[in-house]
Write a structure and sequence with these properties.
47% of the residues lie in helices and 18% in strands. With 256 residues, it is an alpha+beta fold. The chain has a 6-stranded antiparallel sheet with strand order 5-4-3-8-7-6, with helices on both faces.
């Protein structure tokens, strides 16, 4: 019996291997897709998915067939990212970046239907935009959200666009799927995303990806500023600093 066969023969390890397969995919996946690497009997893999869904570790995607990390799995991931040593170093990176830019800097994680702010360091300016830790913001009209959407495969992007309500938050919000597709193609090419008063009037934002070793987006790094102090051209001038800080954050998580 090989090590792989021995691992898949233990019920508790089977559950962990399923969770690992879903986490590695980074996009909604079916039991059949995950089972390609496990080779379990069809009834077994479906039973494991049902068990994990009932326990809150997995949840069904909008198509009813695929699965994504559930609430309890996301809580575990957030706990790992928020471990004391990692969080101390992460805040140091954000604090330095916020000092260089002079504006509030954020780290956000993609959730099922929105981006969730995991960490932030506020600007010292009295005029600031309040988006506290834990705030959820839409994908389609924020720099962080569009950065995430740009990393989806065509199939998963089409699935998102077919189900999403591209609500207009301001007159500048992109609400047409075709325009959003074009914007995401541009973001994919240049490696950063912007929000030019698309989510909140009077606010601009810039986001870059924080990548895992396999190149998959793990989170986003962004800053936002009121238009009284920043226009989009000025924001774009900080792309090099943002990318450098993003690379530091990636190394920090990998090293942990």
């Amino acid at each position: 019996m090989t090590d792989a066969d021995q691992a898949t023969s233990l019920p508790s390890l089977r559950l962990l291997l399923v969770l690992e397969g879903v986490a590695r995919a980074g996009v909604p996946v079916t039991p059949t897709e995950v089972n390609e690497g496990l080779g379990l009997p069809k009834p077994t893999i479906h039973r494991l998915f049902a068990t994990l869904e009932e326990a809150g570790f997995l949840q069904r995607d909008i198509d009813g067939r695929s699965y994504t990390p559930g609430r309890r799995m996301r809580e575990i991931a957030g706990g790992i990212l928020s471990s004391l040593r990692v969080r101390t170093a992460r805040i140091a990176i954000l604090t330095r970046l916020a000092g260089e830019i002079g504006e509030t800097c954020n780290i956000a994680l993609p959730d099922r239907t929105a981006m969730t702010y995991l960490e932030r360091v506020e600007t010292e300016w009295p005029l600031r935009i309040q988006l506290p830790i834990g705030t959820q913001v839409p994908f389609h009209c924020t720099a962080s959200g569009k950065m995430y959407l740009s990393t989806l495969t065509e199939r998963h992007l089409e699935r998102y666009l077919a189900a999403a309500d591209l609500e207009a938050h301001t007159p500048a919000t992109i609400t047409e799927p075709q325009r959003l597709r074009a914007e995401l193609r541009d973001i994919r090419k240049r490696g950063h995303a912007t929000d030019a008063e698309e989510f909140i009037g009077g606010m601009v934002a810039l986001a870059v990806p924080v990548l895992e070793t396999n190149g998959r987006l793990m989170s986003t790094l962004s800053f936002h500023a009121p238009t009284q102090r920043f226009d989009l051209d000025r924001a774009l001038a900080f792309v090099p600093q943002m990318r450098a800080a993003s690379a530091e954050l990636s190394r920090l998580i990998v090293a942990d």
